Amino acid sequence: MNREVGISSLGSRLDRFEPLMLGIVRIMSGLLFLAHGTQKFLGFPGGDWAGSGWAFDNPGAYAGLIELVTGALIALGLFTRPAAFLASGTMAAAYFIGHAPQGFWPVNNMGDAAILYCFIFLYLTFAGPGRFALRRD
């Protein structure tokens, strides 16, 4: 058996799990995003930003509200595409407003998570919710 046939075979075996893994990535990224919103508005989990969402004179409060709502929608698979699009744009804005001014490199300006969320949610905008969604977009 040559190597190319083995790799091709592996790829075809893994392809059937794509909708399943898309659903898992959607759920996990939605839950992690939701945690940012719950921290800002519910104080859970505790940390530097706990409870900061109620100060609507802070732009982070609006981001927290979007994190709370879109994170829940994405995790549940409800209106995944529009929620992911809004979340992606919010993270792009968060990066350029809050992180990029602190330095060029995302790993140094603490913006790597915002970039990763931005592109995962942008992917979900096009890919849809995958498995385990409460609504197929």
TrEMBL record:
Entry similarity comment:
Belongs to the DoxX family.
- GO CC, one annotated term: plasma membrane
Annotated source species:
Sphingomonas xanthus
Q: Chief subcellular site?
A: membrane
InterPro entries according to UniProt: DoxX, DoxX-like_oxidoreductase
Top-level taxon in the UniProt lineage: Bacteria
- What keywords sit in the KW lines? Cell membrane, Membrane, Transmembrane, Transmembrane helix
Q: Where in the cell is it found?
A: Cell membrane
**Protein name, per record:** DoxX family protein
